[in-house]
From TrEMBL:
Example of a GO biological process term: chloride ion homeostasis
Signal peptide range: none
GO molecular function, one term: potassium:chloride symporter activity
Subcellular location(s) per record: Membrane
Protein name according to UniProt: Solute carrier family 12 member 9
Lineage: Eukaryota, Metazoa, Chordata, Craniata, Vertebrata
Residue ranges of domain Amino acid permease/ SLC12A in the record: 3-130
Superkingdom: Eukaryota
Main location: membrane
InterPro entries noted in UniProt: AA-permease/SLC12A_dom, SLC12_C, SLC12A_fam
Organism: Mesitornis unicolor
Keyword Membrane: yes
Transmembrane segments: 12-36, 48-68, 74-91
Length: 286
């Protein structure tokens, strides 16, 4: 309205045109990202659509922006950058999905197929850890310790739930998955989570050793807590990730067993787990 009152409508025409061209460029960029991600729900009806037309559209819009007004084009790009940062940091989580996740999935799948286990060499060996955790409340310090040991290798937190799926109405591991993922985020460890259901701990560890990982990224080292008679202590409640904030431990893990309560894992089964890992040619850390 101020521009209209000043009688200089042409001063805003260049900015408006630049914004329109910027919109067209970002639409082409979105289509290009969807095409490169091979998103299954992206099926353009334009008969001549290819990623080349997307690049041509982006390049054409950007060139025309600067031909019309270099100052307006630079200001528009700066405004767009500020808007993107504001949306990234201030907006709530979206429900329509993230193209970045589709691109990451596409690239990870491609590189996992290229990672050939037959080309492994001792020069480039790195520890890929599978840490068995019965209850994270008593293993918080061990989770941190193994995170430091992995040296940019694979790190998997494994847990065995002692139940029988035939006697249950649904999978009990699905509700627990969110708690474990929240734990990984809160402790700031670079780890994956692998949960399994088994009639015994030994069978569950076997399952995880056989199935954890994908392609050339599989655990080569099994880490077990030391078997002794020490009473378990809740290290999660005293972990700096929780004590440095005013939050309680909001994770849905059960309380630790009482010192007088017998262990779920016998000494014989513990030794059997070690023997199984050695048979599978895995390294073992106790």
């Amino acid at each position: 309205q101020l521009v209209l009152f000043s009688g200089k409508l042409n001063t805003i025409a260049g900015v408006v045109t630049t914004f329109f061209l910027l919109v067209y460029a970002t639409v082409n960029l979105a289509c290009l990202a969807l095409e490169w991600a091979s998103a299954p729900n992206f099926r353009p009806t334009f008969r001549y659509f290819t990623w080349h037309t997307c690049l041509l559209g982006i390049a054409g819009c950007c060139v025309m922006m600067f031909l019309i007004s270099p100052v307006s084009a630079s200001a528009s790009l700066g405004f767009l950058l500020v808007l993107l940062l504001a949306l990234h940091y201030l907006s709530p989580s979206s429900t329509w999905g993230y193209i970045s996740q589709a691109l990451i999935f596409h690239q990870v799948r491609k590189y996992l197929l290229m990672l050939d286990v037959r080309k492994d060499h001792v020069k480039f060996w790195r520890p890929q850890m599978l840490l068995m955790v019965q209850n994270p409340r008593g293993s918080a310090r061990l989770i941190d310790f193994v995170n430091d040991l992995k040296k940019s290798g694979l790190y998997v937190l494994g847990h065995v739930e002692l139940q029988d799926l035939d006697a249950l109405p649904s999978d009990p591991l699905q509700p627990q998955q969110d708690s474990w993922l929240s734990l990984v985020d809160k402790l700031n460890v670079k780890a994956f989570v692998s949960l399994t259901l088994a009639p015994s701990v030994r069978h569950g560890v076997r399952q995880l050793l056989f199935t954890s990982g994908l392609g050339g990224m599989r655990p080569n080292t099994l880490v077990l807590g030391f078997y002794d008679d020490t009473a378990p202590q809740d290290g999660l409640a005293r972990h700096p990730a929780f004590t440095n904030t005013r939050e309680d431990v909001p994770l849905g893990f059960p309380p630790l067993r009482e010192p007088t309560t017998p262990k779920l894992l016998s000494a014989r089964e513990y030794v059997g787990i070690v023997a199984d890992a050695l048979k599978m040619l895995r390294n073992v850390l106790l």
